[in-house]
Amino acid sequence: MxxxxxxxxxxxxxxxxxxxxxxxxxxxxxxxxxxxxxxxWGWDWRLCVIQFIKCPSDDRGEVRAAQRLGIxxxxxxxxxxWASEDLEAxxxxxxxxxxxxxxxxxxxxxxLVVLDEMTYAFTNGWLDLDGxxxxxxxxxxxxxxxxxxxxxxxxxxxxxxxLVTDMVNxxxxxxxxxxxxxxxxx
Length: 186
Hints:
alpha/beta; about 15% strand; about 190 residues
């Protein structure tokens, strides 16, 4: 295939990092990101997943799998923001999560960094979009790809990204009163 890199190139030589955005009202944003993580793991990429909303105490199948596969994982939020009893503490956690993301990205130690549910930090005003995009433009190593997920991605992020997928909700079991299922939603 013409687009396939020769086998003798190292992972750093055969790719330039991309910024990918999975947004929209439909289910599957994090799932799509984790599909990319799983694919990259198969090619021995160095991986880091950072979650802005999900909390460390959540028992999720993807975290269990990441532990077994040796994928670095950080869930630093305090759960669903609309249920937060202290929005300033939630905002502070988001800013702390961004500082960790900056360290991980700037280190150059990763081929792919997932910034799961990061869009909520922009839409809630916890992070300044222009400042984040400017920082990424100056500090993201050439080889490092990013995946950003979350609903209501701001237009500036849409423009910044190399790939944007808008998940559309056509039908969901929640609409029929069915609860989330282990192995499907978590």
